[in-house]
What we know:
By secondary structure, the chain is mostly helical. 64% of the residues lie in helices and 3% in strands. The chain contains 7 helices and 2 strands, in the order ααααααββα. The protein has a two-stranded antiparallel sheet with strand order 1-2. A hairpin with a 2-residue loop joins β1 and β2. α2 packs parallel to α4 (62-78), α4 (62-78) packs parallel to α7 and α6 runs antiparallel to α7. The two termini are 29 Å apart.
Amino acid sequence: RGYLPAMLGVLQQLESCEDELHECLQAFVQVVDVAPNAFQHSLDKIVPMMLTICRAKDRLLDGTRQMAFEFLVAFTEKRPKTCGKYPNFMQEVVLLCMEFMLEIDDGNDWEDDTHAGYVDVSNYDVGEENIDRFA
C-alpha cells in the first residue's frame, strides 16, 4: 500500500512520455494479474486516473488508452466485489465500452495499420471485447 502513491505519481509524470507511460500501464496490468489486492485500497485514486487516460483520445495513442482500459477490466475480473463498492464503477466501465465502440476508424490509412505483419486492434474491437468480459 505504501508504494502505490509513488507508482501513481510516476504515471502522472509520464503523461508526456507516451512510450514509457504505455510500459508502466503494462506493468500495472501484470500486477493486477498476480496481486490485485495491491490496488484495492487505492481505487479512489487509480480509477479516475485510468478513466482519464482511457478518455484522452486527443492526447494519447489508442494503444496506451487501451492498456489503461485493460487495467480496469482485468481488475474487475479479479476483484468484482471490490469494484462493485466503488461509486459508479460499473456505469463508468460500461460507458467507456460504448465510447470505445463509437470510435470508428475512417479506414483511409489501413496501409499504415500493418507493421511487420501486426495489425492494430481497433477501439471498437476493444470496447466490444471488454463489454463481453465485463458482463
